[in-house]
């Protein structure tokens, strides 16, 4: 069977060159005589894989030297607890911007551990835009401010980096990491589940400024303590070895294309094709504010739940998979991460035109 265009929000498409390389090396990696899946994580050959992966990520994202890179498990959702456990270091206060479901989950989890406030929210508008803030939106003594930079479910992205003054800014970048260049130094910490734009499910990458380490609550589980993980090179226990290897291949692929500037150019071109079409007609509506539009997750609706359902089913039959919107939002969502080729979006737009003609609204 031919490969389909997979618009899933995650786990999602990986670059074909990466999958082919992994297939080539599946039985025997280099001259190791075994698969990466079978290797001891303490072996020199694997130690090179993980250190290359870290070095490549540092190069790709231009991560400053005073940041640690951690390869962890538990998904982005585990970070919803790990962040307050590690970073509620002084006042035990933190401020959260609620811009969607994941930031709300992060906020609720953090409430178990300290005095957590909502700095801004767009909940009343069904998270159809990213709330604006300025430095006065935050409590001066907050230990950190938390945001979700790209809202996977709603299809919005922060059009700005919040100005938090000296308060460390923590960002969940699960669905936008590696999609464009980002100034890491503006953040105290960045975290991302890998299954959207970086690797297979099972790996979570944490990028954290060194001065924020070492203040975890005493009762923090060892596995969630960033300092322990940093001191052990992400190998306090067995790391998600194979996912880290796939991530390494993805970083190599990004570099081979020209890095994150090039990635942004390619992603912007794909997103423009889809948004320009959405703006040019009135059969489909794009429910989010223009300025908050995500380049990675594009949401749209016909305004008729039965038509939406029909759209997703017929698109799937035509090889355009997983276009059904998140269960909490309805409509459609096209996730067009780095690995989605331009042709996939062209096919989608062509399908949308055909569908609109074939299914006139009453
Ligand atoms: C997918 C996603 C999550 C949840 O990730 P898990 O790895 O499943 O825990 C959290 N935040 C964002 C922004 C996501 O896109």
Count of separate structural domains: 2
CATH topology of the largest domain: Aspartate Aminotransferase, domain 2
The number of helices is 9
First-last Cα distance = 38 Å
Structural class call reads alpha/beta
CATH class call of the largest domain:
Alpha Beta
Order of helices and strands: EHHEHEHEEEEEEEHHHEHEEH
Q: What hetero molecules are bound to the protein chains?
A: pyridoxal-5'-phosphate
Low-confidence stretches: none
Q: In the CATH classification, which architecture of the largest domain applies?
A: 3-Layer(aba) Sandwich
Q: From the alpha-carbon coordinates, what is the Rg to the nearest angstrom?
A: 21 Å
Q: Enumerate the strands of the largest sheet in spatial order, edge to edge or round the barrel.
A: 2-10-9-8-5-3-4
The CATH superfamily label of the largest domain reads Type I PLP-dependent aspartate aminotransferase-like (Major domain)
Classify the helix fraction into a percent range: 25-40%
Q: How much β-strand is present in the residues?
A: 15-25%
How many E strands?
A: 13
**Mean pLDDT across every amino acid position:** 97
> What best-fitting shape do the alpha-carbon axes yield?
globular
* Main pleated sheet: 7 strands, mixed
